[in-house]
Design brief:
The protein has 286 residues and is mainly β. Helix content is 5%, strand content 22%. It has a domain of 169 residues: Roll (SH3 type barrels). It contains three helices and 17 strands. The longest helix has 6 residues. The two termini are 28 Å apart.
Length: 286
């Protein structure tokens, strides 16, 4: 992490990650065959209505085709480069399989150029290797976890995150998630060994509004500053109380700040062993 001298108001509290020390490639452009264009939606759906607030503008990005299915099994691959990806908080690794095919994967911490990774049921418990959950011993940290076997990694993909294998059952594996929730997943699902790279991502302070705009984030208006027709907290003369006990979103639903928001009929409720605990990590009350 690098902090600048306070030569201006924007530099005073801003910090950046020193990518030159983290990345292993000198090329500024990704492998062209593994990229495609990416169109920004501005938070709008197919009908043109804004469904995701506070999005828009931002720098143009090239999308990297990252392999989350890992369908090339029992073929060793060598790491050729660790690269930056503007579309995610973790770094990506360019790997070359023994048959010559190249792919991008999500890079774990401590993975270096020249290391060998493999996707196999009989792979060693080593950073970057990918195995079925039933073959991973208790206490191991994993990332890139599947929910349904063979459907591709869906969980634990953000920079610095990992889950811990806490128990093995006959057909299910219990994982302690980054949110402190403990849940069961079919042990035929695949997971990668290690922790997602770029753990300093959560420590970055933007310092000024301009950096947020470059990232595609637009200003956020408080609900209390809006009209009553636009937000449940809006309206009233001067600074008025919100008028109801719990905070609500623009759509009228609970905000989740220390409040339970999970649907009581959600299909995966039976797989939750222990609910997540509100606290400093979750942004709620301690």
């Amino acid at each position: 992490m690098k902090k600048y001298k306070p030569t201006s108001a924007g530099r005073r509290d801003g910090s950046v990650i020193e990518y030159r020390k983290k990345l292993s490639t000198t090329q500024s452009n990704p492998l062209k065959s593994l990229t495609r264009g990416k169109k920004s939606t501005g938070g709008r759906n197919s009908g043109g209505r804004i469904t995701a607030l506070n999005r828009g503008n931002g720098n143009k990005r090239t999308y990297r085709l990252v392999d989350f299915k890992y369908d090339k099994k029992d073929v060793p691959a060598k790491v050729e480069a660790i690269e930056y990806d503007p579309n995610r908080s973790g770094f990506i690794a360019l790997i070359c399989y023994k048959d010559g095919e190249r792919r991008y994967i999500l890079a774990p911490q401590k993975l270096k150029v020249g290391d060998e990774v493999i996707v196999s049921e009989k792979a060693k418990i080593r950073t970057g290797n990918r195995l079925m959950l039933k073959n991973i011993p208790v206490g191991t940290v994993v990332y890139n976890v599947e929910i349904n076997p063979g459907a591709g990694a869906k969980l634990i993909r953000s920079g610095g995150n990992s889950a811990e294998v806490v128990a093995q059952d006959s057909r299910l594996t219990s994982l302690k998630m980054p949110s402190t929730e403990i849940r069961k997943i079919l042990n035929d699902a695949w997971a990668s060994i290690g922790t997602v790279s770029n753990e300093e991502n959560r420590l970055v302070s933007l310092g000024k509004a301009g950096r947020a705009r470059n990232m595609g984030l637009r200003p956020k208006v408080r609900g209390a500053a809006k009209n009553a027709v636009d937000h449940p907290h809006g309206g009233g003369e001067g600074r008025s109380p919100r008028g109801h006990r719990r905070q609500r979103t623009k759509q009228g639903r609970s905000t989740g700040k220390g409040q339970k928001t999970r649907s009581p009929k959600k299909y995966s409720n039976t797989l939750i062993v222990q609910r997540r605990k509100p606290g400093k990590l979750m942004g709620g009350k301690r």
